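WP5 quarterly update. Target: Kinetochore protein Spc24. Source organism: Apis cerana cerana. Length: 203 aa.
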Amino acid sequence: MNDIIIFKEKHINITDSQIKDLLQNQIQLINHVKNKQNQHCNEDEIKIKDLILKITSMRESLQSKKQTLEYKNNLLSKHLDHVIEIKEEKDKFLKEYHLLELQRNKLKICKRNLQDQELLDKGRRKFLLYKALTGIRWDYEKLKETITGYVLHKNYIHHFSYINEESTKNINDLLWQEIYQSIFQKENNEMYNKENIVENKEL
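Structure tokens (predicted):
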């Protein structure tokens, strides 16, 4: 206010209304500038919020992609480890194959031993003879776990299976019983068939 009075004293020709107009103009100018600043501030605030939202969205997207990438990297690492294991196994099998091939070639070069061949032929004949006499057919795939097979005599067939834990004597007795039963059943069947033939002839 003092400034205005001093200004008025210096410029006595200026009226109060002019001073009032000047003040109002200044106030309007200040208000206009203030409104502009507020408008710019609001616009900047909106832009900042939009940028914050975009940055947040980008961070979430990057985090998701990072997790996906880490998962794929772990999966790829496991697959690579598995591939290495398979390659090692392959190399191992190839070495074994080459060794077996060398052994086979050595065996081909070796001359046949007549005594061994004769022993094998003799054993084969014995096996076929026992097979024909007893009628026993072994299930070789299960022999490690159980003594399994079946007895076969013409039309008679009977399956058997015994646990390996039983004593050898018990198993032998059981097998002889199977053989005896097959022969006895065979004889009964033959007798029954003969009786039927006789009866049919009499009729």
